[in-house]
Design goal:
Length: 167
């Protein structure tokens, strides 16, 4: 391949503006996933700093690819549907059942939500992505301590007599 062929290929095949736009969107999707990733990593969950950003940027990437290769809304809707289904599948893998206890539902729901963040960013609906990111982070950060505090208070207020059936 000569210089002229290489020059033609480099200038005709790449749209630098599109590349920068897509990289920016992928980076924004990455950033919106970080609060959940850091929270899950801090609490030593199975999904964390690697999983959440990957889910967000992959979802964003699939939508960007769909937008660039399909020219009708029905096809893009099917890509979105595939992402939603895939996120449910990945989230299902985060749910563990052991000895009657079920764990991982919050992580699974967060993974699904993170997919929605990536899709929102790809469609340039930043306000939706921001709200999803903030609400998800707040729930992960504050719901568990509140839940544990409520359970501890319920146990403290219960006496041995409360377990007996009076009737």
């Amino acid at each position: 391949m000569g210089y002229e062929e290489l020059s033609y290929w480099l200038t005709s095949e790449f749209d630098l503006q599109l590349i920068l736009s897509n990289l920016t969107l992928l980076f924004v999707a990455f950033l919106f996933a970080l609060p959940m990733a850091l929270n899950r990593e801090r609490t030593s969950r199975s999904a964390g700093l690697r999983t959440f950003p990957l889910v967000s940027i992959a979802s964003c990437g699939y939508i960007l690819i769909g937008i660039s290769i399909f020219d009708n809304e029905g096809s893009i809707a099917r890509v979105t549907y595939g992402i939603i289904t895939g996120m449910g599948f990945i989230g299902g893998g985060a749910i563990l059942k052991s000895e009657g206890n079920i764990r991982g539902t919050a992580t699974a729901a967060s993974i699904w939500n993170t997919g929605a963040i990536g899709v929102s960013v790809a469609f340039r609906m930043y306000e939706i992505a921001l709200v999803l990111s903030i609400v998800n982070f707040l729930i992960l950060r504050f719901a568990e301590p509140i839940k544990e505090n409520k359970l501890n208070n319920d146990d403290k207020g219960k006496s041995d007599d409360d377990d007996e059936d009076v009737g």
